[in-house]
Specification:
54 strands
């Protein structure tokens, strides 16, 4: 075999052809090979193939490629025109996207080509190149090959077409979910099906099945083997291209079908399942004795594929297995959620996980959903056929239904589990009739999600959160402003924040599914309560919040048409030291009630400054009244300035060997602080500089100008600041 690559990483090659006149054959090369080591910068790996002209005239073949892999990967296509194994021409590299090259092949000749993978700067990843090959003068016949490169990751060895995943059934019946598993390699694999979860009503049962074999309900894990080589798809086409009927010589046999091959020829059986070396068929094709005459020899990859097929057992089986999940519904109404994981036992980390849901068909109920005038957060709490907003909320204002993803999205229809903004001219209610929803699983994104509940009120602590993605303290409803909630009421929308993507389940039968930690630090914090006569929002400050719980104090995204909202501009409702505050207010006045339990710090005070320059000192409890309208404020700390010049008594006194001298400056001034003995001799001057207004202090260590310790006794210290002068005594003990 000619070598077109130094390191082959061609994985899971799937080949499909269209059924038209064939002017060329295509050997895609490669088998089931993977690369587990990290690829270094610039390492080149390759996939290769051979294209053979089956006619006596020259043809031009075209290669159309589509690269689907990471942005820093590239491919480079090269050709060997004379079949000597040397690549004479390499085109410039191509990144993700499409590319196209063509080459001429003389009558009966062959060319080789190589697709070099260049996975720059990536320690692991998966990439696919889909290659389409066709004769430009006969484009109806095409060959399509997928080259898949896996680096540092477990390979994907199978696909699973799982079909429908949800069903509604009547009581005392059963439903079957069916799927097909396909081996996408050329090697046999063993697939395991594991029931991860089986959340079904108490008298229901579920069973795992492969083909016609179903296991008892208590069996949670089953396996099945799938062949790697499908005779009809992989082996018979090789014989069809080479020699379909070779008779009349010793060992001659018909290669027209699986049965003919297995029946043998003039010399008896030619295939010994499990042993290709002893099989006459392989010996003949390997030596070139077959096909006889002018029929073209098989390529090395074709010979190797036949050997693998014989060693696998020379089976005439498809590379698929039928999987099914049977769910028996008995007397109890409800919803069942069953999660199945399928994986190759050799690569258990590469699993396909499917969630199946079965719900009983229940009688319809009617819910009355109230709403207020202007904007509301709403949801759909029943199962109905027509989810159009005009059907569910006929009095809503047209064109005002918004869901939330990365941003707000205008919608026409409501879906179960999603929350929406919707506007009404007047307050009222809507009667909704539909099937009762007793359980609902919803997929959530990381961050804020706009959700709604089921047909009954669900407490936050009863939400099933298997991945623990819910951030405590972040369930918010809306009544003109956001308000913290501990339950989901049917027909209302809610904001909920998560620390990761994942799913949660609401179920009317679920009790105490999760522990909800109390967000009680706010009880000890200072408070700013913003009120406009209709709505109230409270912000908290002064208390340190650990980083691991900080998101529990975050607020949902601002809706552009909110009537009232107050938050710190980092979208939090708590701060330790202060920050900017954004207030949305459509009323004509704003009252701010404050309650200070945590001081700003030594010689400091809390200050609330409005956008027009007004400042309010916050001490104790009180109220501030401001004009209405939206505005920005600033909460912060300010140093308290003394009213007079003061020289305070030193501390400690008496002292040994150091003491602190304190003084107060109401203004910026030049300050000297001098030490004298009782005879009036100057011992040391420990301050002689300009200082700002405030409460100042300095330490004296009982030394003179030269750093020598002074003796025990009484000393005087005198301050001079502007026109202010004062003197005090202190006692040094030894």
């Amino acid at each position: 075999m000619k070598n077109y690559s130094s390191s082959l990483l061609v994985l899971f090659i799937s080949l499909s052809t269209s059924m038209f006149a064939q002017t060329f054959s295509f050997d895609p090369g490669g088998t089931y090979i993977t690369e587990n080591d990290t690829t270094e910068y610039g390492q080149v790996t390759s996939g290769f193939g051979i294209i053979t002209n089956l006619t006596e005239s020259s043809i031009t073949v075209q290669l159309d490629g589509i690269n689907n892999f990471p942005d820093d990967w590239f491919t480079q296509t090269c050709f060997d025109f004379d079949g000597d194994g040397i690549l004479e021409l390499c085109y410039p590299p191509d990144g993700p996207g499409g590319w196209q090259f063509s080459a001429e092949i003389t009558g009966g000749g062959s060319i080789g080509f190589a697709i070099h993978f260049l996975p720059f700067d990536l320690s692991q990843g998966v990439g696919t190149v889909t290659l389409t090959v066709f004769d430009v003068d006969n484009p109806d016949y095409t060959v399509i090959v997928d080259y898949n490169l896996s680096i540092g990751m477990e390979p994907t060895t199978f696909s699973f077409d799982y079909g429908e995943t949800s069903a509604e059934v009547e009581l005392n019946t059963y439903t079957r979910f069916e799927g097909v598993i396909t081996n996408i390699t050329n090697s046999p694999i063993t697939i395991a099906a594991v029931r991860n979860t089986n959340e079904i009503p108490g008298d229901w049962a579920s069973m795992l099945c492969f083909g016609n074999l179903c296991y008892p309900p208590y069996v949670d894990s089953v396996t099945t083997d799938i062949v790697g080589i499908d005779y009809s798809l992989s082996i018979q086409p090789i014989f069809n291209q080479s020699c379909t009927g070779c008779h009349g010589s010793a060992g001659g046999l018909s290669l027209t079908s699986y049965n003919n091959v297995m029946n043998g020829g003039n010399s008896g059986p030619v295939v010994i399942p499990g042993n290709h070396l002893s099989s006459l068929l392989w010996q003949k094709i390997n030596s070139g004795a077959m096909p006889p005459g002018n029929n073209p020899d098989l390529t090395e990859s074709q010979i190797s594929l036949i050997a693998d097929w014989i060693d696998e057992g020379a089976l005439n089986e498809e590379k698929t297995a039928d999987f099914s999940l049977d769910v028996l519904v008995q007397d109890m109404e409800g919803i069942g959620n069953i999660q199945i994981a399928l994986f190759d036992v050799e690569y258990p980390n590469e699993a396909v996980v499917v969630d199946y849901t079965v719900a009983t068909i229940s009688s319809e109920i009617t819910l009355i959903i109230p709403y207020m005038s202007d904007w509301n957060m709403v949801g759909l709490p029943l199962s109905i056929e027509d989810g159009n907003v005009s059907t569910i909320f006929p009095d809503a204002i047209d064109g005002t239904l918004y869901s939330f993803g990365v941003s707000y999205i205008l919608e026409d229809n409501l879906e179960n589990g999603k929350g929406y903004w919707l506007r009404f001219d007047d307050s009222g209610s809507s009667d909704i009739t539909g099937g009762e929803i007793t359980s609902l699983t919803m997929d959530l994104n990381e961050g804020w999600n706009l959700i709604s509940g089921i047909s009954s009120t669900i407490e936050l602590e009863n939400i099933l959160d298997p991945w623990e993605i819910i951030i405590d303290g972040t369930l918010f409803g809306y009544n003109g402003s956001y308000l913290y909630s501990e339950n989901l009421v049917p027909g209302e929308g809610y904001w909920l924040r998560t620390n990761d993507e994942g799913d949660i389940t609401l179920s009317s039968s679920q009790q105490s599914a999760r522990a909800v930690s109390s967000v009680d630090r706010l009880d000890r914090s200072n408070r700013l309560e913003f009120a406009n006569g209709t709505h109230t929002n409270t912000l908290y400050f002064g208390e340190n919040i650990p980083d691991e719980t900080r998101l529990s104090y975050s607020l949902p995204p601002v809706f552009p048409y909110m009537a009232f909202d107050a938050r710190f501009t980092d979208n939090m409702r708590n701060t330790e030291d202060g920050g900017k505050i954004q207030v949305i207010n459509t009323n004509s006045s704003l009252n701010i009630h404050y309650n200070i339990m945590i001081n700003a710090g030594e010689q400091k005070e809390w200050i609330l400054a409005t956008g027009v320059g007004e400042e309010y000192v916050l001490t104790g409890a009180g109220e501030i009244t401001l004009p209405g309208g939206s505005q920005e404020m600033t909460l912060g700390k300010r140093t308290i300035l003394p009213d007079n010049y003061t020289l305070h008594q030193n501390y400690p006194n008496p002292f040994n060997p150091v003491t602190t001298l304190r003084y107060s400056l109401p203004f910026y001034d030049h300050v000297t602080l001098t030490i004298y003995d009782l005879n009036g001799r100057e011992i040391n001057q420990i301050v002689n500089t300009n200082q700002p207004a405030g409460f100042q202090s300095v330490v004296w260590n009982a030394t003179d100008y030269f750093g020598r310790s002074v003796g025990a006794g009484v000393y005087l210290y005198q301050i001079q600041a502007g026109n202010f002068k004062d003197t005090r005594k202190m006692v040094l003990l030894k």
